[in-house]
Amino acid sequence: MGPGDLRSALSGVKQPRRDRRVLVDHTTLDDAGVYAYGRGECLVQTVDFFTPVVDDPYDFGQIAAANALSDVYAMGGRPITSLALLCLPDAGVPPEAVVEILRGGQDKMSEAGASILGGHTVRDPELKFGYAVTGVASRRKLLTNAGARPGDRLFLTKPLGTGVLSTALKQGKLGSATLKRLTRGMATLNRVASEVAVEFGARAATDITGYGLLGHASQLADASGVTLRLRPSVEWLLPRALECARDGIAPGGLAKNRDFYAPKVESGGIASALLDTLFDPQTSGGLLVAVPARRARAFEAALRRRRVWSVAVGEVVGRGERSIVLETGAGGSGARP
Fold this sequence. Notes:
Phosphoribosyl-aminoimidazole Synthetase, Chain A, domain 2, 2 domains, 6-stranded mixed β-sheet, disordered C terminus
């Protein structure tokens, strides 16, 4: 669902009294729910599944798993269990493709150290796959989208453009080299980026997925009561993403994101194609992390040592009229292992 449709649906549902052990729920539009248990520990729970974004079934399984796991990493958690969700049409998907999808997902869950406990399948006109994931986190080190403070520095840990490039793939306009880069990025876990964020005392984080960078950044700004000042650059993008955007290649969700979140953004004269990539719905995108200024350089260096792509994208300032202020100019330092 688009962000506007989802808000409309939720507004018609009366919410029950909140259990005091619920630390994070849907009210701050965070990446996962969090439930306190034990002494200083909490459960992190999320679910995500979608239609194929690449043609190779094994790669699709890996990407679907990485995407579902990402919400746990965005909260500073460690995934421990998962349940598979598979929607399968009556015809058109050969049994061997289903095996490869499941194998790809299982391999990625094993890489994350999460056990697949089971799952659920249903007949559906369109193929869909993903997981419900449970993780654990230290309550003291929990990352939410409500903790950013003025002065924090902002970092992005994967390049943008997966939506426009996946659409280009469906239109037969994506070369093999770009497809390989796109697939590798979407199948990469956010585990290391999350671990480094927790280690260096990040105040807030969110993963960049269906609502695009500006959508998820707006949610972080609103939950934290701050404004994010960003300086967009082509350095933030996957190869050919800007070219595709200039050619008018865009997923359907991009327009919905732009319509809903544009009023929260002061665009600052950013070129329209570059602005479109900032609204582009991402699949298994990176983390947007807010780090105290005194730790920002060490945080960035640690990501580089551990071979995590990263770029400094801006800073947190006091709350202004808009959630996001975009400025022209260099996008900051970056690392591309």
